[in-house]
Amino acid sequence: MTDRPPASGSPDPGDTEPVPEEEPQAPGTLFLVMIILMIIIAVWVIMYLRLLER
User: Fold this and answer.
1) Residue 12 and residue 9: Cα distance in Å, rounded?
2) For the chain, what is the domain count?
3) In a 3-state reduction of DSSP, which class is residue 25?
4) In this predicted model, what pLDDT tens digit does every residue of 11-36 receive, in sequence order?
5) What is the domain extent for residue 39?
């Protein structure tokens, strides 16, 4: 193995690592998902109870 310099020309390994991109901001996503999940569970419970009465 040869002793090659880093691709960026910097001897510091931290300088050669790519900078992570910022994640897109999605405010309220968890809130909306929880509301949808509660609606799905409520519909499932209503249908389950109705089918039990048959």
Assistant:
1) 9
2) 1
3) coil
4) 666 666 666 777 777 778 889 999 99
5) 28-54
